[in-house]
Design a protein that fits this description.
alpha+beta, Creatine Amidinohydrolase, Chain A, domain 1, Creatine Amidinohydrolase, 2 domains, 6-stranded mixed beta sheet, 5-stranded mixed beta sheet
Length: 389
């Protein structure tokens, strides 16, 4: 835990403190930010307050008095609910406004780790509860140089495997050999293992109407054969298998033939323009040192698709934060599922992945954008036209 940095950020956010709380390991963010893991079951509630100034304080149950021993500051023990309440009041004395893993109206579910009852309990002590979303982004979503290096390594490997996967499908179609969505998914999984890459699940390999389901995944039991004339989408995410590994997440689309139908080519072009509009906005804002917020990037992509008459078919946010988990804790490019006003800060990465999902086919084009000290850039290969097989 970097106490000095946390207190500096608290002062910048105008907060009196950051109150951490957990029970039964419900808040993984708390353990990552505080930099410790409990040695046993967390069967009782604990609280830990980092004030904007001064020494941290902890409140632990007498059954588990050791719970916060790895952290600095004095600890107070309780047993009864009345002792707990009094201990919490004492700990929060002098605080008017503290951050917790809370998001008003659960607008940011990835931050909403503290239950409503605990928020009510803190408020009953006369303290306003603010969202820790900006703090979480600062301490969870920023990359190190090692993270960036591993991401670029993953990008090189995943892009090469993605090219090979399209070639595999093309070879099978030309030779008249049967190939399925599941076959291609297994090809990716084997290739990842050979290249030292890991992934949480997936990838998505989808043809025709299956590509209109953004979270479709083939299985051994449920999958489609890939045939000439099919539309093919590959959504792939993986990271280097190392402590510094962060995800690389992309989506490419293709047509199983030499000349895609005009309707498919037209939709791809709209999606490409939407993607490029969002990327350009991010690059221009970062270059001008202008604050960039997640909802603005979403607006840039969505307006292109809406103006071309396909707004109702773009059914998800434009992008998400990327980190050690494929969906990270930083700002999302979102003005649909929520109005994400968080600033996109340096040393963070996010996806840009607009899509149009029609009944018979869907097209998405996804790139990753890293915001570094010298500007914003796409970290891997960029699809400019449909892959033809």
């Amino acid at each position: 835990m970097d106490l000095a940095s946390i207190q500096s950020q608290l002062a910048e956010e105008g907060l009196d403190g950051w109150l951490f709380f957990d029970h039964h390991r419900r808040d993984p963010l708390a353990y990552r930010v505080l930099g410790f893991q409990p040695a046993s079951l967390v069967s009782r509630r604990w609280y830990y307050l980092i004030p904007a100034h001064g020494e941290p304080q902890g409140l632990v149950h007498r059954i588990e008095p050791f719970m916060l021993d790895a952290l600095p500051g004095r600890k107070q023990a309780y047993s009864s609910w009345t002792e707990q309440m009094e201990g919490l009041r004492q700990m929060l004395a002098g605080c008017r406004r503290v951050a917790m893993q809370y998001s008003p109206n659960c607008a940011l579910p990835i931050v909403s780790m503290v239950d409503a009852g605990t928020v009510e309990l803190v408020r009953s002590a006369g303290v306003e509860v603010a969202s820790s979303a900006n703090l979480i982004q600062y301490f969870e979503a920023r990359w190190t140089q090692a993270n960036l290096d591993r991401h670029l390594e993953a990008a090189r490997k995943v892009d090469a495997i993605r090219r090979a996967a399209f070639e595999l499908v093309g070879d099978c179609l030309r030779a008249g050999r049967r190939v399925t969505e599941f076959d291609v998914q297994r090809f990716f999984q084997r290739s990842f293992a050979q290249e030292g890459l890991v992934t949480s699940d997936g990838p998505t390999i989808a043809v025709n109407e299956n590509s209109s389901n953004p979270h479709y995944e083939p299985t051994a039991e449920v999958h489609r054969e890939i045939r000439p004339g099919d539309h093919l989408l590959m959504d792939v995410w993986a990271k280097v298998d190392s402590p510094d590994g962060v995800y690389y997440d992309i989506t490419w689309t293709g047509y199983c033939g030499s000349e895609p139908p005009s309707a498919v080519a037209s939709v791809f072009e709209i999606v490409r323009q939407a993607r490029d509009s969002a990327v350009a906005l991010a690059q221009e804002a970062v270059a001008a040192d202008r604050p960039l917020r997640g909802f603005e990037v979403d607006d840039a992509a969505r307006s292109v698709i809406r103006e071309r008459g396909f707004g109702e078919y773009f059914t998800h946010r434009t992008g998400h934060s990327i980190g050690t988990e494929v969906h990270g804790a930083g700002a999302n490019m979102d003005n649909l599922e929520t109005h994400d006003e968080r600033r996109v800060i340096p040393w963070t990465c996010f996806s840009v992945e607009p899509g149009i999902y029609l009944p018979v086919f869907g097209i998405r084009s996804e790139v990753d954008v890293f915001v570094g000290p010298d500007g914003a850039r796409v970290t891997g290969e960029i699809q400019e036209r449909l892959v033809t097989l």
